[in-house]
Amino acid sequence: MEKKTYQTFRVLIGTSVGALIAAAVIMENLLLAFVMLILGTLLSYFVKKNVYEVTEDERTSLIASKASRMAMLSFLTIITVLGIGLLTLKNNFPEFTQAGYTLSYSACLLLLFYSGFYAYYNKKHG
To answer: Can you say whether residue 56 is alpha, beta or left, with left for phi > 0 and alpha for psi between -120 and 50 degrees?
Structure first.
């Protein structure tokens, strides 16, 4: 399969899966939405496996790496600030305390994942 065909299939798969998940959520069938997500991921994997041209190079990989790192750090900063902010307001708004704890624990988990993957790849490539 050539690169242009692969890109067309990716768009079709993404659009179809998104529409089917939206329909499943509207019908309140979360199991169907989850199944559609898994099937879309598998279909995308098998389509990519049949591509014989180069679809990404070092530059694309570097850009994706930097973009994902900045997205992760931005998200981490936002949820940390929101979590701590909600926890400081727990006396005035006790209904948001659980959300504050959830955001704070999510930030900690994300930091643990990042540290673990960083250590793994640093050891593997360093």
So the answer is: beta
What's the CA gap between 29 and 22, in Å, rounded? Answer: 10
Q: Which of 39, 47, 60, 45 is nearest to 6 (CA)?
A: 47
Question: Distances in Å between the alpha carbon of 88 and those of 81, 84, 93, 105, 111?
Answer: 11, 6, 9, 15, 21
Q: How buried is 88 (Cβ within 10 angstroms: 0-12 exposed, 13-18 middle, 19+ buried)?
A: exposed
Say what the pTM is.
Answer: 0.62
How far apart are alpha carbons 73 and 56 in whole angstroms? Answer: 24
DSSP state of 94: G
Mean pLDDT of 20-37: 93
